[in-house]
Amino acid sequence: AAGFGKSALLSHWQQTQHEDYFIVYHCFSHRYEKTRSLAEAYCHLLKQLYLYYNIRNGDLTNDENRMRDILVGMLREPISAESKGLVIVLDGLDEADKTFEPFFTELPAGVFVIAAARSEEGDEPEYLRNWTDNAQRLNLNRLSPEAIPKWLKQISELAAYSEDNEFVKRLDKTTGGFPLYLHFLIDDLKKAAKKSQDVQAVLRNSPGGFKAYVREQFRLLAKVEEIKQQQEVKKLFALLSVALGGLSENDIQDLTNLDAWDLADLPWQATRWFSIQMGVYNFAHPLLADEFQCVLGRQADSAERNLIDYCAKWQDHHSAYVLRYYTEHLRDLQQWEKLYAIARDEAFFTTQRQKLPDEPDLPLKTLQLALWGKAKTDDVVGMAEFLLVHPQRLMQIAKESPLDILRAGSITRALALADKFYSQHRILWYLLLAWDLVINATQYKGKMEQALEILERLQKKDLRCLSESWMNDCAAYLLMELLVATKWTLTKLSKLILDDHGLVELCRNLAKKGKFAAAFDIAQQIDDSEYRAEVLTKIGDLQKNKIPARQLISRRIRKVTGTLLSRKSLAKAQAQAEKVTAALNTAQQIDSSYYRAEVLTEIAKVQPTPENVTAVLNTVQQIGSSDKQAEALIEIAKAQAQAENFAAALDTAKLIDFSYYRTKALMEIAKAQVEAKLSKQALLTAEQIFVNRNLHIPDIAVAFVENDDKENFKRLLIPCAYYRDAA
């Protein structure tokens, strides 16, 4: 619960552990947009982890899914025996702007994660739902009685009382060991000691329980002469008690009659309850706001109405508070029509972008609240409206072109914007930016160096084959120029991002340009023996006498292809006849990894028993092509899921190194879980999908619809709203 000192405990603990562990720390806080943001959290964690792993120029994007994927990948790798142990500390999970899901499935030896959040003992709110699996739980109920004298001893004015057992017992009984109450009461005792007042009497007169203490302090505040004479200070208390975040001095001056002079001279009896940083006012702790709101009653209600009226006039003042929290107030008050009107208002959207450019997700949050409201009331037309507006607004936020920014002279901004795109589009943007620099390299100095820098950054990323044929065609065209300009240093990159179709296209382009040696080298990377033979024939046609005659190659192609097809057919027939051992033996005789992978997946699909799957998995690990290996594992996981062996299917998915393919397997597993009426497990599986979410999440949503599960379908609306095609 709030006020038990979780943050203080974590802060102190990590300070004592630096010699033995490398500590990665992030604290969420509701007070500022930056400290609520998941994107900022991922970025902060990655910066620290890059330092730990000694990674220079590590990838930092604005894409939450991309950064999460990087985190997942980093934490799957074992740490070296020479390294310090790694501890990741996360505080305030309940104060993040969205549910912060675990970014690991299993942790390697020497890596630990500590997460803290508010929750009553025995409860499991949504923000903790996936963190408690296989975790050791520690509930902070109170400060131990033994810790209280240690606290007193650190305060010179109260050190003598640390030896007084009766005093310590009374202090413990009065506060119940509640750290927030102890903090304020010990502060009261310290002030009394400084004024030579009766410290024992102050403790005796203090009520039991924090709620009663706040009421008593309110009664004392009402007697303070400075506060009695300043009605506006009373308004300030009421205002801060109902505010959802920090209020600026301008907000306070508009909402009360306090001016800059008054705010600079607030009585200490008031400011002791506040946090005032850079002209922004909050209560020092959220629980204080709750308690004072209860005490103030009708005055707090009146302050809230005034605050809502102030928010409604946002066009007059463009207050940052209003742009951040107006829609949340409307949601909490269930003023849905006003919320929908604000979500539709292009002027409000534009003002949010202009006044708060460092908070690009804020306009989207407004739409998400509207979408949530429509979903709650089962308004299908309304859901469709905001589901489609969301990706349009997202595109408006990212409407600048990286190429335009590059040509305007900012390579850093161009790459930063390129990094916001979905991973496969990001590859094409990087290639296009490098290509644009290369074709202008003869006219401008430094362009080639910039192109090489971009390509170097691209090769450090977690690259996967492009999934669409048009993408492969574009990449093949761009790579042809880049390969020539970089003197053939990108052949490895070609293999990473192009599928066999793309490699064939690249070889043809190079051969047409007379670059036969490069075309021949790239052709050797093509997995499919038919494709490989076809492209070698094409090179031979173009090169004429530089390689063996076409007739000889054609005879070799026919011989290889005939053998491949006969063995593939035999192995499939053996599998379907449940002769798994014979099928596996036949599969091992197939030279082409493409066909071998196809046969192995057939075996797994026909006979997904644990023994057969184990045999197939062992063989799949031997497939030379990582792409074909991944495709085989997808089919195995799918077969296991359809047999409702979900634990085994998830284990198989974990074996897939490439996130692009792993998410395809997870999508199939989630759909099977939906069909098996395991909705919660399906949602958990869906949350592990970090790549191509626009393609996979809608498929899972459709599965919920087909199984008449309306409530869980609604849970996937906002994830779908981030992508126009998904929406």
- Name the poorly predicted regions: 545-565
Largest sheet: 3 strands, parallel
| Quaternary structure type | single chain
Summarize model confidence as the mean pLDDT.
Answer: 81
Task: Describe the protein.
The chain is mainly alpha-helical and 727 residues long. Among the domains are: 123 residues, no CATH class; 60 residues, no CATH class; 101 residues; 120 residues, Serine Threonine Protein Phosphatase 5, Tetratricopeptide repeat (Alpha Horseshoe), CATH 1.25.40. Helix content is 64%, strand content 4%. The protein is built from 42 helices and 6 strands. Helix 3 runs parallel beside helix 4, helix 27 crosses helix 29 and helix 32 runs antiparallel to helix 33. The chain is elongated. The protein starts with 5 loop residues before the first helix and ends in a 6-residue tail after the last helix.
